[in-house]
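TOKENISE THE FOLD
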Amino acid sequence: MEWQYTPYAPLSFVVAVVSGALALYVWRRRGAPGGRALALLMLAVTVWSGSYALELSAVGLPDKVLWARVEYLGIVTVPPAWLAFALQYTGRGARLDPRRLVLLSALPAATLLLVWTNEAHGLIWSAVALDGPFLEVEYGPAFWIYWAYAYALILLGTLLMVSMLRRSPDLYGRQGAALLFGAFAPWLGNGLYVLGLSPLPNLDLTPLAFLLSGVAITWALFRWRLLDIVPVARTAVVEELSDGVVVLDDRDRIVDLNPAARRILNLPGSGAVGMGLDQVGTGRELLRNLRGGARREVRLGGRHDYEVSVSALPDRRGGPAARLVVLHDITERKRAEEEIRRLNETLELRVAERTAQLEAAVSETAQSERMLRESEERFRSLVRNASDLIIVLDAEGRIVYESPAVERVLGYMPEERVGSRAFDHLHPEDVERVRSKFLRLLRAPRERLSVEYRVRDREGRWRYFEAIGTNLLADPAVRGVVVNSREITERKRAEAALRESEERYRAVVEQAAEGILLVDMDSRRILEANAAYHDMLGYAPGELLKLTLYDVVPYSREDMDCYVRRVQERGSYVSGERRHRRRDGTLVDVEVRANIISYGGREAICILVRDITASKRAKEALEEIREAERNRIARDLHDGVLQDLAYAVQTLEFAKLNAGDASLQKELQEALDTVRRGVRGLREAVYDLRLGEEEDQPFLRLAESLVDLHRRMAPAGRGIELKVEEGFPQRPLGARGMEMLRILQEALTNARRHSEARRVVVRLGTTGEEIRLEVADDGHGFDPNVAGSGVGLKSMRERAAESGGALEVSSAPGEGTVVRVRVPIEGAPEPG
């Protein structure tokens, strides 16, 4: 291989040497964010620049093409290495997982393969020729694809660096600016060369521009300490701070905060940025304290104390744009101060001795005496105004000190019981228990134990206290067991009253004649059941608490869930007559009422159950007697009075035919109309009386028969129409169905007799749980508020209510009348 000298080759060699030295230097600091990627980048520049120097120095086209191919080892490495460095330097290195690195390197690897096999396809260089010491090439399509890809990676990395520069301090900004200059210069030269704009045709300015890059990166490394101080480290420090850091704008909205601040303010993992500080967690409490000064102590959440410092953050014009709030947890310090305060409370015991010593020490200055007096007064005030009793005992259990609060709480003077045994003042039932705790405390220096006890006050009343004892016998400043006691008499009375109330409640429930049970809203498990309900279903006491509502109510689980939801929506529900299942499997007739109550902090269903077996049997017997009497009256009317009236109608019709006088014919016609009206009324009465005999017939057939009867009795030109919805039951509907038929009878009678309606429409429908009846006419109507107390309307309302349903009447003068009835289908389940 022959060589030649060109003036441009030495410059490329210099760039290669500088880049190689930088690669070695950076590799030694590869542990810094971006260190490995920057070392690879510098190594690729070394290969590129060195190979280009050899290309310029080689003689002959084959040799130059060989070194041009070697250059591509660096050319395809620089763009991915630059992007990797930019991601790691700006704190986004976690995104460079192995899968993304493979994808990022796929096109560069394919380009390198095409370079070394170019003779077979010409996709990189479509033509290569010599132009003096330079190569003159025409690029193929694959080159332009890679060229666009490479510039896209360089642009993306540059944008990441620019984004970081805009929000970084001066030091990091200078580092980033030097790096950006180092990246921009070579690619500017490369763009000029590839686009044919180089000042010297076919001279690749890229390796020469790398000399400027080397200077810029060297400056960043040694002047601005690149890889020693990086922005990522600064961000990590803020994120890992144990102190909370919050940035607020001028309207007290959260701009940024670190994880410690989220924990302190009790904020969720995300979503707090942009919200007002007073809208999140304990932010309102913090904001109220921020307005009090630049540095102060606050308590947040009722448990932790913090030292809050506030600093102004200036905007780009130097004016205040935001505030930096730093929260330093001083809870442990406050606790330590509190412990010191408690220990210092015993200082009063030694004040006299210490004062005498200070008076004897003539060398002490007046300033020291003043400070001591102030300290003494301060601690006296703290002890005097404390709400808790502070008692110091010696190792024998004798009282050596009592705080002034003993006078306010128990009525004793502070020094009155000093020297006496503490156990002598306790309730006899508490002495052994408290003595045991005291002996245990003596065996454990600095141990803390809690205990409750009773002590008699000056007026002879027993008062309850809870106390915490601390063994400070080994502390030369105390030399005693410090007992901090708080009175809990009122709390004990409230607890006793609560227990008494609960006992009274249980006594009332257990003595109630009706069954009472509580059912969990979610699981349907029986929580409580009184003795009456256990006896009603034949269970031993407590057995029902192992069951659920599904076990004692003979309906499907789906139906029960549906009706429990109905009770929950309404809050209370009267379900009328139901059946519950006894322990032996038989059913008992009951009447129930369900209500929603709070039980143990959650919702429960309270169900009152009354056994109506006896009353139902009596009612059924009475109904049988009434039905028999109705049937007898119906037979008497049909066989006697109706036959006589029918004969009277025939006689009057015959007399009218034979009467020659017109006035006589008119009187006979009036008499005939009167008798016919009586016949129709009696037929309606007979039909109503005989409804009981038809109770086992399908409801729909009876309704059609009733409508047909009224249709025949209606005057000419008046129509009655029956419309039945699809799915209406084709079976008998029992006693409730009979009541519905009587309501229909009354409504049709009123429409036919009083409304002068031309058209009456009867509609029957069902929801599966209840049947619906609607009777609408186009008659003259009435005012329900005026006529609402009529006998017929009152009778219909009573029948609907007795069946567990409801009746509505809509009417107005001149607008017709609509009667709507809803009655539960007999046999459908109800809650409980």
The CA atoms of residues 456 and 462 lie 4 Å apart. Residues 613-658 form the longest helix (46 residues). Residues 169-173, 221-230, 828-832 have pLDDT under 50 and may be disordered. The chain has five domains: 9-232, 242-329, 512-611, 612-694, 697-832.
